[in-house]
Write a structure and sequence with these properties.
This protein has helices at 26-32, 80-83, 90-99, 122-130, 135-142, 155-160, 201-215, 240-252, 267-275, 301-321; strands at 42-44, 56-61, 63-72, 78-79, 164-172, 182-183, 186-195, 221-230, 233-234, 258-262, 280-282. The protein has 323 residues and is α+β, with helices and mostly antiparallel strands. Helix 1 packs parallel to helix 9 (267-275) and helix 8 (240-252) packs across helix 10 (301-321).
């Protein structure tokens, strides 16, 4: 607006605040406002770059199935000396269930979990190897001493094109200062699974729930809760709208952009696919050291200014392409 006095395209902005809890209200809103929100292309800037000076366009995201496992045993907390060895400990049972969800090679053991997972083609693997991905710096940023994960896959493959299963939190019994010899009556854990095309979050939860209940030992009752889910998303990396985005990034940065897949989930992308059937540009500017979902989360000034230029140039490039 400052340079040209007017926008070169007609722009519609959708803002929502539920992304971190599953965007439950957004699908209804998008369906109700379908005609009002009609467009030629969708732009989302909730993704990352491979490095501070390496612009990146994302063409695939993992979905998510977020669950809670609850294990109930005795009707109340018990004295671990008086009852220990006589009843099933829910905390021990929960640990055994979680341990059984993966094998020694990091493969998820839920029956049928990999049925719909697309195999990595030789071309996919070569394209990923060619990306300027610094594994040492990436792992170093995490604070972990070594890279680890599913056997037979690289770190970049594990974090983008392969599904995962991780414990996000656990609680049970006495966790205060000092000691208390309690045998807990209840234990729980939050477990998330990142999903890849063509996995379905609803199908995965049903399989997960059935398997968790099957793993339950005698003496406890187990239930699994489906807290929220999002479907994986993928688009054609060679779409003309993405070509316009590449030209915009080339104008804003000193290095040409690369095409990447990301491991996170943006629930609205699958919803947009369902409601609008439009091409989408995922042009984000986050960095590995942004400490996303951690204390002191930040956004780099280089990303802020570079992103501002990129979006302005994108509007111009879209106008040139007839969007």
């Amino acid at each position: 607006m400052k340079v040209n006095g007017r926008l070169p395209i007609n722009l519609k902005v959708v803002i929502e605040g539920e992304e971190e809890c599953g965007s439950e209200s957004l699908p209804v809103f998008l369906r109700e406002r379908r005609k009002e929100l009609d467009a030629d292309v969708i732009l989302v800037s909730d993704t990352a770059m491979l490095a501070p000076d390496q612009p990146s366009l994302c063409y695939a995201l993992r979905g998510i199935c977020y669950t809670q496992i609850e294990v109930t045993g005795p009707s109340k907390d018990l004295h671990s000396g008086h009852f220990g060895g006589a009843v099933t400990n829910p905390a021990n049972a929960l640990c055994a269930i979680i341990a059984a969800l993966k094998d020694g090679d990091g493969k998820i053991t839920v029956p049928g979990f990999y049925e719909r997972v697309r195999a990595i083609t030789p071309a996919d693997r070569e394209n990923m190897k060619a990306l300027p991905f610094n594994e040492k710096a990436f792992i170093g940023e995490s604070g972990s001493p070594v890279a680890a994960g599913e056997k037979g896959y690289s770190t970049l493959e594990r974090t983008t094109v392969r599904p995962t299963l991780d414990v996000n939190g656990m609680w049970s019994g006495y966790i205060g200062e000092g000691s208390k010899t309690v045998l807990p009556s209840f234990a729980a854990a939050k477990v998330s699974m990142r999903l890849v095309p063509d996995q379905d979050a609803h199908d995965i939860f049903r399989r997960f729930e059935a398997y968790v209940k099957k793993l339950a030992p005698a003496g406890v009752t187990v239930r699994a809760l489906d807290l929220h889910g999002a479907q994986p998303w993928i688009t054609d990396p060679g779409h003309p709208m993405l070509e316009a985005a590449k030209r915009a990034l080339e104008r804003a940065w000193t290095r040409p952009p690369v095409m990447i897949r990301e491991g996170g989930s943006i629930p609205v992308m699958a919803v947009f696919e369902e409601t609008h059937h439009l091409p989408s540009i995922l042009m984000g500017f986050g960095l590995d050291d942004d400490q996303v979902h951690s204390p002191n989360e930040k956004f780099s000034l280089s990303s802020f200014h570079g992103g501002t230029k990129s979006v302005a140039y994108l509007y111009e490039e879209l106008a040139k392409s007839g969007a």
